[in-house]
Design goal:
Elements (H helix, E strand, L loop, with lengths): L5 E5 L6 E9 L4 E6 L3 E10 L5 E6 L9 E11 L5 E5 L2 E10 L3 E5 L2 E3 L3 E6 L34 E5 L5 H13 L4 E5 L11 E3 L5 E9 L3 H5 L3 E5 L6 E9 L8 E5 L4 E10 L4 E5 L6 E9 L12 E4 L2 E9 L7 E4 L2 E3 L1
Parallel strand pairs: 1-3, 2-4, 3-5, 4-6, 5-7, 6-8, 7-9, 12-13, 13-15, 14-16, 15-17, 16-18, 17-19, 18-20, 19-21, 20-22, 21-23, 22-24, 23-25
Antiparallel strand pairs: 8-11, 9-10
């Protein structure tokens, strides 16, 4: 983002944003401005050339109810004109591995001034620990980039499953046939109908991408009562499996299970909306490969009960979750069984 008064302006109290690999340059007032918004940032590059233009400001204007909670890591803020402050914070901030150049101050947080060029780690408020003998700083766990999975440019490798033209009883079988026929990209088209699976669809063979076309998924009673998942992910010939773009509207009281992941390769789950009436959003089998989650949202439901084995269960798996919004009133929301899990 080059020019303008503000490169990126983030407002509104609800939801959260995640920014990664963002470059802002030559703004007239500030590179990135955050107000009242939970925001996570990584690999932000700010290059400013006017005097005293900050790279990042964090404020709480216009409300006494909500405050910004910002995490920024592995980022660089430069001002070639000199002076000013790289990061101005009036709210809650966690910063780690920040490099600055040209600024008089690297950070001013609620009156606290830091003049060191680089910030190893900074927390604006009290540090809480699970154990008294635990470190008073973050563990600095690995943050891995989400793999890029481009769309297959050869449309002969695509299977478009037109759900509008298929009776609900045959929809899942049609999706399974497309998978078993060897297509790399499975696209579900549903402009006038729902996807109503009555059997588990096993993702295998050559599949690289399942794109739901934002279909509304409503599993049948017999699939729900079978205690089998809607989707079973097995190891395919692709290095990475991309599963994306589904919406779910289960009727009240139903309890379906979305994903059973048995793939030994990398899986990405992205842009999926699931109500928490579901029995189990996700669990994995032994030896499952890396898992990346982006923009997956669960509705809340006051009628839920405690589930001892958790709702999202990660079993000895590497997991990186970005914008996983699990609004469960019944704990535990996530359960890590020996997993390396970052959210």
């Amino acid at each position: 983002m080059e020019g303008f008064e503000v490169g990126i302006n983030i407002e509104q109290r609800l939801m959260t944003y995640t920014l990664e690999h963002v470059f802002v340059k030559d703004q007239r007032r500030v590179g990135i401005a955050v107000d009242q918004k939970p925001t996570t940032m990584r690999d932000i590059i700010s290059r400013q050339s006017l005097p005293k233009v900050s790279g990042l400001t964090i404020t709480n204007q216009g409300t006494n109810r909500k405050e910004a909670l910002v995490v920024v890591v592995d980022s660089e803020f430069t001002n070639s004109a000199g002076g000013g402050t790289a990061i101005l914070n009036e709210s809650f901030l966690f910063a780690r591995n920040i490099k600055t150049k040209g600024y008089s101050n690297s950070l001013i947080s609620k009156g606290q001034v830091m003049t060191d060029r680089n910030i190893d780690e900074f927390t604006s408020d009290r540090v809480y620990r699970l154990w008294e003998d635990g470190p008073r700083k973050s563990l600095n766990l690995e943050i891995r980039n989400v793999p890029h999975v481009p769309f297959d440019p050869n449309f002969e490798h695509w299977a478009v499953v037109d759900l509008d033209a298929i009776t609900p009883q045959k929809q899942a079988a049609a999706v399974q046939t497309a998978i078993d026929d060897g297509y790399s990209t499975i696209y579900l088209q549903c402009q006038q109908t729902r996807y109503e699976p009555n059997q588990t669809v096993v993702i295998r063979n050559k599949v690289e991408r399942i794109h739901g076309g934002w279909c509304n998924v409503r599993p049948t009673d017999n699939l729900i009562q079978s205690s089998n998942p809607i989707w079973q992910l097995e190891t395919t010939s692709a290095d990475v499996l991309m599963f994306e773009a589904f919406h779910t509207a289960n009727p009240p009281g139903t309890k379906a299970w979305w994903w059973q992941n048995n793939s030994t390769k990398t899986v990405i789950l992205a842009d999926v909306e699931i109500p928490v009436r579901l029995h189990q959003p996700y669990k994995n089998g032994p030896g499952a490969g890396d898992l990346f989650i982006e923009q997956v949202f669960n509705h809340t439901d006051d009628g839920m009960t405690y589930k001892p084995d958790g709702w999202w269960v990660f079993d000895h798996q590497n997991v990186w979750a970005r914008n996983l919004d699990a609004e469960f009133n019944a704990p535990p929301r996530h359960q890590s069984r020996g997993a390396n899990y970052g959210c």
